[in-house]
From TrEMBL:
An annotated GO BP: carbohydrate transport
Organism expressing this protein natively: Xenorhabdus koppenhoeferi
Keywords assigned by UniProt, alphabetized: Signal
Signal sequence annotation: 1-24
Domain of life, source organism: Bacteria
Record keyword Signal present: yes
GO cellular component, one term: periplasmic space
Protein name per the record: Maltose operon protein
Pfam families to which the protein is assigned, alphabetical: MalM (PF07148)
């Protein structure tokens, strides 16, 4: 039975030698998260990325972050700041590994003393070109749990293009965010819900948005499809970052055309890093050796979507040897 299944997979693969390309995220995706002002009425927040020059981005200090680790960051008066457009208060800047496959990034902004930092996130590739924009309303309020506090939370699924060593993540808040607030769950209600008691009929408090706060950042390798590609294989005109969780399109790219042209142009595919290429090939071999053909096919699809020239050959050889 196993040999028959492997034969069917191998035959289907040979009949379709052109890899498929899928796009799982649209720039018209909507979020049902709504911020509230201090009176509790619903308002919509702006979802326009700021215009930042390349020299401004290069002057920032980007903190390296490793996978499989949770980093807690305190944003206070001594944190970095950006004097640009309507950005206000402290910012956080991170350099993420780009040669370890796809990444799942979970960002939490913790509520403390009825105050919370309302984050916006910009993602840049290795050349500090814009790739994705997550407006503040993408980060939704989460009630406290046994091991977690009140927080604004969002998960970012990113796939760095091959040939990069790192990508960059900028967290900031805006003047518009500071004019809004978030309704949180009263602790007595949260406790009653957790233990199954009758929920008391009491009003929920409001968390004021502030220029400082506490962030928790967790990064792990991620194998699911549907991620946002960070970086370019071919050179293109000045790009616009993909807005996630907003129906509003961006009015301007994050980096102006004048700054993008300062980057050296190329018309060829970037060379694939040996360790990145080896990473996918080894993972495909291991999956097939364990008879996990479905996982091997997913790895093959992801590798070829990123431009791998050897993943298909590795898959075919392993299937032949398995037979």
């Amino acid at each position: 039975m196993k040999n028959k299944l492997l034969s069917l997979c191998f035959g289907a693969l040979l009949c379709n030698l052109i890899p498929s390309v899928s796009y799982a995220v649209s720039d018209t995706a909507e979020s049902d998260t709504v911020m509230v002002n201090k009176t509790g009425s619903g308002i919509e927040t702006s979802a326009i990325a700021p215009v930042l020059s390349l020299p401004t981005l290069q002057k920032l200090q980007w903190q390296p972050i490793n996978t499989q680790a949770t980093q807690t960051i305190s944003l206070n008066g001594s944190s970095q700041r950006l004097n640009a457009e309507n950005i206000r208060g402290a910012i956080a800047t991170f350099a993420l590994p780009a040669n370890q496959g796809s990444l799942e990034v979970t960002l939490n902004s913790l509520v403390k003393d009825k105050q919370v930092y309302s984050p916006n996130v910009l993602i840049f590739d290795e050349q500090l070109r814009p790739a994705a924009f997550y407006p503040s309303h993408y980060f939704r309020y989460q009630q406290p749990g046994i091991m977690s506090a009140d927080r604004l939370e969002g998960t970012l699924k990113l796939t760095p293009a091959l040939g990069q060593q790192r990508i960059y993540l900028l967290v900031y808040t805006t003047l518009a965010d500071l004019k809004t607030s978030t309704q949180i769950t009263d602790p007595a209600k949260a406790y009653a819900q957790g233990v199954g008691n009758v929920v008391p009929n009491i009003p929920d408090p409001i968390a004021r948005h502030t220029e400082t706060g506490t962030l928790a950042l967790q990064i792990k390798s991620e194998r699911d499809a549907g991620n946002i590609l960070i970086g370019q294989i071919f050179s293109t005109p000045a790009p616009k970052p993909l807005t996630v969780g907003s129906a509003q399109t961006l009015s301007a790219p994050v980096i102006t055309p004048a700054t993008v042209t300062s980057q050296p142009a190329t018309t060829t595919i970037k060379p694939v890093l040996n360790d990145t290429e080896q990473y996918f090939n080894d993972a495909i071999k291991k999956a097939i050796s364990n008879s996990d053909i479905d996982k091997a096919l997913k790895l093959l699809d992801e590798a070829e979507r990123l431009g791998s020239p050897t993943a298909r050959e590795t898959f075919i050889k392993m299937i032949k040897n398995k037979k």
